């Protein structure tokens, strides 16, 4: 529980990446309108900003964050911090330029016209940086010295948050087909690999497994709820929106529980 700032930073960050990715693809293939994409990008940006603000508490002293820059390219954590900043900056610019008033100011002050195609390209760059950022998170926790983390399950479950939590967020905001598909693929994968993951943990850190049962119960309940919500969301009926929004929030709680469990499994062999 002592890593709560990182819980919020990673989960909210991965959720934002998933939401923006699905909104961008859905916009390209005409499943949502530009205004819907803008709304999803804005909410994703807010979630990411909250995650960054809370994650900064992990440093103890904010000025220490600058020390991480000295490890760029050789330290996975430094790469993660830098990439989070690049992603946030590009996402912020994407969202800002979605407002006609901001575009007009840019046109007048900078004498630069932002076309729809240029804005779409900027959105695509933000999505790409988001995916690289999500990948950088998986690299931070590939540690041979931590038995419970030294497995492909670590990367798998971190990516599943992008699909499940990000997919639920996008689904609740109108990305019905792609959102449902992402959630269904993510939840089925999570359920299918659960037995193997638990067997791996019982082999590596049996003394820590039983203490995590309440958190795992919350996560599995959230996964099942997400699967049911994805099937319901595929119906594309307006009356299911309140249900989808409530489900998205509960799924986020489940992801927080799973991430708390992940950090609670930290243990170094002597």
From TrEMBL:
Record-level Gene Ontology MF annotations: dimethyl sulfoxide reductase activity
Keyword Transmembrane helix appears in the UniProt entry: yes
Keywords: Membrane, Transmembrane, Transmembrane helix
GO BP field: anaerobic electron transport chain
Keyword match Transmembrane: yes
One GO location term (cellular component): dimethyl sulfoxide reductase complex
Sequence intervals crossing the membrane: 6-30, 42-61, 81-100, 121-138, 158-176, 181-200, 215-235, 242-266
PANTHER family assigned to the protein according to its UniProt record, in alphabetical order: ANAEROBIC DIMETHYL SULFOXIDE REDUCTASE CHAIN YNFH, ANAEROBIC DIMETHYL SULFOXIDE REDUCTASE, SUBUNIT C
Protein name (record): Anaerobic dimethyl sulfoxide reductase subunit C (DMSO reductase anchor subunit)
Organism: Vibrio cincinnatiensis DSM 19608
């Amino acid at each position: 529980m002592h890593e709560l700032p990182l819980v919020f930073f990673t989960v909210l960050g991965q959720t934002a990446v998933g939401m923006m990715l699905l909104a961008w693809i859905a916009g390209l293939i005409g499943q949502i309108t530009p205004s819907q994409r803008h709304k999803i990008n804005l909410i994703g940006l807010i979630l990411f900003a909250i995650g960054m603000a809370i994650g900064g508490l992990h440093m103890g002293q904010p000025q220490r964050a600058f020390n991480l820059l000295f490890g760029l390219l050789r330290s996975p954590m430094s790469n993660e911090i830098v990439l989070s900043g690049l992603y946030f900056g590009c996402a912020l610019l994407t969202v800002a330029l979605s407002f006609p008033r901001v575009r007009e100011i840019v046109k007048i002050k900078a004498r630069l016209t932002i076309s729809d195609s240029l804005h779409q390209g900027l959105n695509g760059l933000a999505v790409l940086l988001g995916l690289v950022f999500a990948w950088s998170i998986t690299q931070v926790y590939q540690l041979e010295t931590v038995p419970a983390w030294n497995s492909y399950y670590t990367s798998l479950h971190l990516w599943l948050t992008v699909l499940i939590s990000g997919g639920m967020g996008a689904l609740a905001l109108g990305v019905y087909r792609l959102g449902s598909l992402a959630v269904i693929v993510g939840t089925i994968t999570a359920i299918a690999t659960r037995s193997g993951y638990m067997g791996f943990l019982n082999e590596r850190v049996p003394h820590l497994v039983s203490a995590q049962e309440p958190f795992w119960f919350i996560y599995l309940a959230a996964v099942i709820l997400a699967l049911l919500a994805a099937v319901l969301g595929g119906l594309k009926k307006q009356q299911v929106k309140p249900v989808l929004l409530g489900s998205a929030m509960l799924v986020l709680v489940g992801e927080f529980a799973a991430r708390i469990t992940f950090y609670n499994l930290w243990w170094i062999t002597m």
